[in-house]
Amino acid sequence: MKKMNKVEVKAYDYMKNEITFLHWTIDKQIKELDIAKQLEISRTPVRRALNRLIVEGYVYRVPNKGVFVGGRPLDLSQQKERIYFLESLLQHIFYTLQLAECIIDTEPFSGTIEDLKVAKSFKSNQFETVEIDLWKMLLSYHSNTYMNDRVIETMVGLYQDSNQIPLIFQKSRAIKITHYEKLMEWIKEQNYTYARREIRILLNQLLINLIQGIDE
Asked: How many Cα atoms within 13 Å fall on the side-chain side of residue 47?
Protein backbone atom coordinates (compact mmCIF):
# COMPACT_ATOMS: atom_id res chain seq x y z
CA MET A 1 0.00 0.00 0.00
CA LYS A 2 1.16 3.51 -0.84
CA LYS A 3 3.08 5.28 1.92
CA MET A 4 0.99 7.80 3.85
CA ASN A 5 1.91 11.46 4.10
CA LYS A 6 2.06 13.29 7.43
CA VAL A 7 -1.56 14.42 7.36
CA GLU A 8 -2.79 10.92 6.55
CA VAL A 9 -0.65 9.52 9.37
CA LYS A 10 -2.22 12.06 11.73
CA ALA A 11 -5.73 10.87 10.78
CA TYR A 12 -4.70 7.21 10.83
CA ASP A 13 -3.05 7.38 14.26
CA TYR A 14 -5.97 9.28 15.76
CA MET A 15 -8.63 6.85 14.54
CA LYS A 16 -6.58 3.74 15.31
CA ASN A 17 -5.97 4.94 18.88
CA GLU A 18 -9.68 5.66 19.39
CA ILE A 19 -10.43 2.08 18.34
CA THR A 20 -7.52 0.39 20.11
CA PHE A 21 -8.17 2.08 23.45
CA LEU A 22 -11.92 1.35 23.18
CA HIS A 23 -12.98 4.99 23.05
CA TRP A 24 -15.04 4.00 20.01
CA THR A 25 -17.31 0.99 20.35
CA ILE A 26 -17.89 -1.67 17.71
CA ASP A 27 -20.30 -0.62 14.93
CA LYS A 28 -19.89 3.09 15.71
CA GLN A 29 -20.12 5.02 12.45
CA ILE A 30 -17.06 7.05 11.51
CA LYS A 31 -17.88 10.19 9.56
CA GLU A 32 -15.12 11.67 7.42
CA LEU A 33 -16.38 15.22 7.84
CA ASP A 34 -16.46 14.98 11.65
CA ILE A 35 -12.89 13.63 11.80
CA ALA A 36 -11.66 16.23 9.33
CA LYS A 37 -13.17 19.07 11.37
CA GLN A 38 -11.82 17.68 14.64
CA LEU A 39 -8.28 17.34 13.28
CA GLU A 40 -8.55 20.52 11.16
CA ILE A 41 -7.60 18.75 7.96
CA SER A 42 -9.36 18.01 4.67
CA ARG A 43 -11.52 14.92 4.11
CA THR A 44 -9.12 13.35 1.56
CA PRO A 45 -6.43 12.23 4.08
CA VAL A 46 -9.18 10.98 6.39
CA ARG A 47 -10.63 8.89 3.56
CA ARG A 48 -7.21 7.45 2.69
CA ALA A 49 -6.51 6.66 6.36
CA LEU A 50 -9.89 4.91 6.59
CA ASN A 51 -9.04 2.82 3.53
CA ARG A 52 -5.90 1.60 5.28
CA LEU A 53 -7.84 0.82 8.44
CA ILE A 54 -10.32 -1.17 6.34
CA VAL A 55 -7.49 -3.26 4.88
CA GLU A 56 -6.09 -3.85 8.39
CA GLY A 57 -9.49 -4.93 9.74
CA TYR A 58 -10.07 -2.11 12.22
CA VAL A 59 -13.11 -0.75 10.36
CA TYR A 60 -15.49 -1.94 7.66
CA ARG A 61 -17.48 -0.21 4.92
CA VAL A 62 -21.18 -0.74 4.28
CA PRO A 63 -22.18 0.36 0.75
CA ASN A 64 -24.43 3.45 0.76
CA LYS A 65 -24.22 3.66 4.57
CA GLY A 66 -20.66 4.49 5.55
CA VAL A 67 -17.67 3.23 7.54
CA PHE A 68 -18.03 1.59 10.93
CA VAL A 69 -15.74 0.38 13.72
CA GLY A 70 -15.06 -3.34 13.36
CA GLY A 71 -14.44 -6.07 15.90
CA ARG A 72 -10.79 -6.91 15.36
CA PRO A 73 -10.36 -10.56 16.46
CA LEU A 74 -7.79 -11.30 19.16
CA ASP A 75 -5.53 -14.28 18.73
CA LEU A 76 -5.07 -16.81 21.53
CA SER A 77 -1.96 -15.10 22.87
CA GLN A 78 -3.68 -11.70 23.02
CA GLN A 79 -6.72 -13.17 24.76
CA LYS A 80 -4.53 -14.87 27.37
CA GLU A 81 -2.53 -11.67 27.91
CA ARG A 82 -5.70 -9.73 28.67
CA ILE A 83 -6.88 -12.29 31.20
CA TYR A 84 -3.45 -12.27 32.88
CA PHE A 85 -3.62 -8.47 32.91
CA LEU A 86 -7.08 -8.59 34.48
CA GLU A 87 -5.84 -10.92 37.21
CA SER A 88 -2.90 -8.65 38.04
CA LEU A 89 -5.10 -5.57 38.24
CA LEU A 90 -7.81 -7.22 40.34
CA GLN A 91 -5.32 -8.82 42.72
CA HIS A 92 -3.75 -5.43 43.37
CA ILE A 93 -7.12 -3.71 43.74
CA PHE A 94 -8.42 -6.24 46.26
CA TYR A 95 -5.14 -6.16 48.16
CA THR A 96 -5.54 -2.39 48.42
CA LEU A 97 -9.10 -2.84 49.71
CA GLN A 98 -7.76 -5.34 52.25
CA LEU A 99 -5.12 -2.90 53.53
CA ALA A 100 -7.78 -0.19 53.82
CA GLU A 101 -10.05 -2.61 55.69
CA CYS A 102 -12.78 -1.56 53.29
CA ILE A 103 -16.34 -2.53 54.19
CA ILE A 104 -18.43 -3.31 51.10
CA ASP A 105 -22.20 -3.48 51.34
CA THR A 106 -22.92 -6.76 49.53
CA GLU A 107 -26.72 -6.47 49.73
CA PRO A 108 -27.12 -4.59 46.41
CA PHE A 109 -25.10 -7.30 44.65
CA SER A 110 -27.71 -9.95 45.42
CA GLY A 111 -30.07 -8.48 42.84
CA THR A 112 -27.25 -8.17 40.30
CA ILE A 113 -26.34 -11.84 40.66
CA GLU A 114 -30.02 -12.76 40.23
CA ASP A 115 -29.98 -10.72 37.02
CA LEU A 116 -26.95 -12.75 35.89
CA LYS A 117 -28.87 -15.96 36.50
CA VAL A 118 -31.77 -14.70 34.41
CA ALA A 119 -29.48 -13.64 31.55
CA LYS A 120 -27.33 -16.79 31.66
CA SER A 121 -29.12 -18.53 28.78
CA PHE A 122 -29.61 -15.44 26.63
CA LYS A 123 -27.79 -15.38 23.28
CA SER A 124 -27.40 -11.62 23.57
CA ASN A 125 -24.65 -9.93 25.58
CA GLN A 126 -27.04 -8.96 28.39
CA PHE A 127 -25.19 -11.28 30.81
CA GLU A 128 -21.88 -9.56 30.08
CA THR A 129 -23.50 -6.12 30.38
CA VAL A 130 -24.83 -7.00 33.84
CA GLU A 131 -21.47 -8.52 34.77
CA ILE A 132 -19.66 -5.30 33.88
CA ASP A 133 -22.19 -3.37 35.96
CA LEU A 134 -21.36 -5.69 38.87
CA TRP A 135 -17.67 -4.88 38.51
CA LYS A 136 -18.36 -1.17 38.26
CA MET A 137 -20.23 -1.40 41.57
CA LEU A 138 -17.33 -3.26 43.19
CA LEU A 139 -14.70 -0.93 41.78
CA SER A 140 -16.56 2.11 43.10
CA TYR A 141 -15.05 1.17 46.49
CA HIS A 142 -11.53 1.52 45.03
CA SER A 143 -10.17 5.06 44.76
CA ASN A 144 -7.78 4.60 41.81
CA THR A 145 -10.11 5.41 38.94
CA TYR A 146 -7.37 4.90 36.34
CA MET A 147 -6.91 1.26 37.35
CA ASN A 148 -10.66 0.79 37.59
CA ASP A 149 -11.10 2.08 34.04
CA ARG A 150 -8.42 -0.33 32.77
CA VAL A 151 -10.32 -3.26 34.30
CA ILE A 152 -13.56 -2.30 32.58
CA GLU A 153 -11.85 -1.51 29.26
CA THR A 154 -10.09 -4.88 29.28
CA MET A 155 -13.34 -6.73 29.96
CA VAL A 156 -15.16 -4.80 27.25
CA GLY A 157 -12.33 -5.56 24.82
CA LEU A 158 -12.67 -9.28 25.45
CA TYR A 159 -16.44 -9.24 25.09
CA GLN A 160 -16.33 -7.21 21.89
CA ASP A 161 -14.05 -9.64 20.09
CA SER A 162 -15.93 -11.19 17.17
CA ASN A 163 -14.29 -14.63 17.18
CA GLN A 164 -14.03 -17.28 19.93
CA ILE A 165 -14.06 -15.37 23.17
CA PRO A 166 -17.79 -14.50 23.30
CA LEU A 167 -18.70 -18.19 22.83
CA ILE A 168 -16.21 -19.21 25.49
CA PHE A 169 -17.61 -16.63 27.89
CA GLN A 170 -21.14 -17.78 27.14
CA LYS A 171 -20.18 -21.34 28.00
CA SER A 172 -18.50 -20.06 31.17
CA ARG A 173 -21.49 -18.13 32.50
CA ALA A 174 -22.73 -20.78 34.96
CA ILE A 175 -19.32 -21.26 36.59
CA LYS A 176 -18.84 -17.50 36.74
CA ILE A 177 -22.09 -17.10 38.68
CA THR A 178 -20.89 -19.73 41.16
CA HIS A 179 -17.63 -17.86 41.69
CA TYR A 180 -19.37 -14.48 41.99
CA GLU A 181 -21.66 -15.86 44.70
CA LYS A 182 -18.65 -17.19 46.57
CA LEU A 183 -16.78 -13.93 46.03
CA MET A 184 -19.62 -12.02 47.66
CA GLU A 185 -19.52 -14.35 50.66
CA TRP A 186 -15.82 -13.63 51.21
CA ILE A 187 -16.33 -9.89 50.72
CA LYS A 188 -19.20 -9.88 53.20
CA GLU A 189 -16.85 -11.49 55.74
CA GLN A 190 -14.13 -8.98 54.75
CA ASN A 191 -11.92 -11.95 53.92
CA TYR A 192 -10.03 -10.34 51.07
CA THR A 193 -7.38 -13.05 51.01
CA TYR A 194 -9.99 -15.61 49.99
CA ALA A 195 -11.72 -13.07 47.74
CA ARG A 196 -8.46 -12.67 45.81
CA ARG A 197 -8.12 -16.43 45.64
CA GLU A 198 -11.67 -16.70 44.27
CA ILE A 199 -10.85 -14.20 41.51
CA ARG A 200 -7.69 -16.15 40.67
CA ILE A 201 -9.63 -19.43 40.44
CA LEU A 202 -12.28 -17.83 38.23
CA LEU A 203 -9.81 -16.33 35.79
CA ASN A 204 -7.76 -19.54 35.69
CA GLN A 205 -10.93 -21.41 34.77
CA LEU A 206 -11.56 -18.95 31.96
CA LEU A 207 -8.00 -19.51 30.73
CA ILE A 208 -8.54 -23.27 30.73
CA ASN A 209 -11.76 -22.83 28.75
CA LEU A 210 -9.95 -20.54 26.35
CA ILE A 211 -7.07 -22.93 25.75
CA GLN A 212 -9.33 -25.96 25.37
CA GLY A 213 -11.53 -24.14 22.90
CA ILE A 214 -15.27 -24.10 22.33
CA ASP A 215 -15.89 -27.47 20.68
CA GLU A 216 -16.13 -29.58 23.80
From this structure: 5
